[in-house]
Amino acid sequence: MEEQDLIKGLQASDRQVQEYLYEKYSRALYGVIRRIIFDQELAEEVFHDAFLKITKKIGSYDETKGRLYTWMANICRNAAIDKTRSREFSESSKTNTIDDYVYGMESESGTASAVDGIGVRELMEDLNEEQRLVMECIYFKGYTHTEVAEAHAIPLGTVKSRVRSALQVLKKKADKI
Amino acid sequence: MDIQAYISSGKLELFVLGDLNETEQQEVLSLAKKYPEIQQEIEDIEAAMFAFDTASGSEPSNAVKNKIFASLDAERETETSPKELEEKEVRLYPAANPWKPFAVAASLTAVLAIGAAAYFGYRYYEAEERVLLALEQNATLADNLQRTQVRLDQLDADTKQLLSGNFDRVPMKGEGLPMQEDARVDVFWDRESSEVFLSVNQLAELDENSDYQLWAIGEDGPVGIGLVNPAEKLNLQAMQAAGEVQAFAITIEPKGGSESPTLEKLVVLGEVS
């Protein structure tokens, strides 16, 4: 299905199109949330709300600003981040601060064990320590690049170029999958 | 510009991750329109992220999938448009209306403005009243002044008349006559110019159907030379000219005067000396 037909179907609340959307994107979108929220029950609750929000707010999606998936992933990422800042979250699980990710993927609070499938660990094995840190903080956890630069005393330009190089590595890796 | 350097800066990755501010986003979007390489790179990054997220992601449970579609089905059934829902919300929670403070402020301002308008309106009305009153008083004063001026002119003229002419004073009295014992009227007569003036000293008021008439009595008998106003006291009243006169007399006549005097109603009489 073309992205335009998909959007039209979603705007018309077409059940079949909604199912198609779910089949195609649920895995990736749920993955985005799960990297931020370790707790499965809470992550699924956020995913439920975010998916409904996507179908409701499809009218405000502007295709000149990026692909449909990018828009949906940002909705899911923001919904998960909002949840981690809520009272419910701080009561139900340990709130990770940005400093917890200094130790990277090997730390207990890392995402390696949080997801199944191929596994983030395998996908990330070609990244060096520095690239892993920025990927963890920005791509996975949704911190801003300025927050990461400040927390780890890294110049802004360096943070950006590390995000760039890390994604180049992952791009090659993803192409092979 | 160096497109490759821009692409390698890492800014496009942050753009896709939604980690740029509004200004930077606009910059990337306009550059992407201009340079196909940048547009292509953005699409590559999006595709890579989707591929990575799909590969590293995991299926949510069937429970959550069922819950999601149950929610979507429920929404379809209610057939309530989001707009109507929003309107309902507004009605249910009017306090949440962000314009409320402004509306309150506007109402308050309106009330104050109305109060001020009423106050100043009243003040204006009062001032208007005072101005009208002042104008009225002014007109009265002007009128009085005018009358005084006229009277002054008249007195002036009388004085000049008396001083310039050669007038004889002929006192007329009511003594010995049956009508008014205390009546006294003076006639001023210039024999040369024949001019006659009259000044009332004491004369009773008459009913509205009668008039006092002055008679000049000469050799040809009495001649009526004017009506006398008894209210205008000690003031010169101009009469008609009289040449040869032996005596002056005043009688009471019907309104407007008569051709010949009604002698029974003779009030005063004065002989020329």
Structure, described:
Chain A: It holds the Pfam family Sigma70_r2. The complex is a heterodimer of chains A (177) and B (273). Chain A folds into 2 domains: 90 residues, RNA polymerase sigma factor, region 2, helix turn helix motif (Rna Polymerase Sigma Factor, Chain: A, Orthogonal Bundle), CATH 1.10.1740.10; 79 residues, Winged helix-like DNA-binding domain superfamily/Winged helix DNA-binding domain (Arc Repressor Mutant, subunit A), CATH 1.10.10.10. In chain A, helix 3 packs across helix 4. Chain A starts with a helix and ends with a helix. Chain A is mainly α and 177 residues long. By secondary structure, chain B is of the alpha+beta class. Chain B folds into 3 domains: 56 residues, no CATH class; 67 residues; 105 residues, Immunoglobulin-like, CATH 2.60.40. Chain B contains 7 helices and 8 strands; from the N terminus they run H-H-H-H-H-H-H-E-E-E-E-E-E-E-E. In chain B, strand 4 and strand 5 form a beta hairpin. In chain B, helix 3 crosses helix 4. Chains A and B meet through helix 2, helix 3, helix 4 and helix 9 of A and helix 2, helix 4 and helix 5 of B.
Question: How are the secondary structure elements laid out?
Answer:
The complex is a heterodimer of chains A (177) and B (273).
Chain A lengths: L2 H9 L3 H22 L3 H17 L11 H17 L2 H6 L27 H5 L4 H12 L4 H7 L4 H21 L1
Chain B lengths: L2 H6 L2 H6 L5 H13 L1 H21 L5 H17 L3 H11 L7 H65 L2 E7 L10 E7 L5 E7 L7 E9 L2 E8 L8 E3 L7 E8 L11 E6 L2
Antiparallel strand pairs in B: 1-2, 2-3, 3-6, 4-5, 4-7, 7-8
CATH architecture of the largest domain in chain B: Sandwich
Count of the separate structural domains of chain B: 3
Provide the CATH topology of the largest domain in chain B.
Immunoglobulin-like
In CATH's first tier, which class of the largest domain in chain B applies? Mainly Beta
Indicate the overall shape of chain B: rod-shaped
Return the structural class of chain B: alpha+beta
Helix content of chain A: 55-70%
Main sheet makeup of chain A: none
Mean pLDDT of chain A: 82
Percent range for β-strand residues of chain A: under 5%
The DSSP helix count of chain A reads 9
How many domains, in number, for the residues of chain A?
Answer: 2
